[in-house]
Amino acid sequence: MVAFQRRLLELGARSLGLNDQAWKVATEKDLMVERFAREGIPQMDTLTLSGASRWPCVEAFERLGRDVGA
After folding, report:
1. Residue 55 confidence (pLDDT) above 80
2. How does DSSP assign 4-47, residue by residue?
3. Would 33 be classed as within a structural domain?
4. Which DSSP state fits 65?
């Protein structure tokens, strides 16, 4: 995907967030949460789980009051 995005940019394609770094931040939730917090952008309480087994997911679900979106 990175090579494809770089090629589009080289060809002059116009798009918001076309560079590969912007795409990575937009698609990797932990990076997006970190960036939003740094820039002061309000957001709901967020937990990111990567490769977690069942119980860490259940604990996170409970910690967020069972009111979650995935």
Report:
1. yes
2. HHHHHHHTT---TT-SHHHHHHHH-HHHHHHHHHHHT-------
3. yes
4. T
- The single residue listed with the structure tokens 């939730």 is 29
Q: Is residue 30 part of a domain?
A: yes
8 Å CB contact between 5 and 19: yes
Decide if 36 is inside a domain: yes
The C-alpha atoms of residue 7 and residue 67 are separated, in whole angstroms, by: 41
Helix (H, G, I), strand (E, B) or coil at 63: helix
- pLDDT of 32-44, one tens digit each? 888 889 999 998 8
For residue 12, the enclosing domain spans 2-63
Rg, Å, the chain Cα set: 16
Q: What is the number of structural domains in the chain?
A: 1
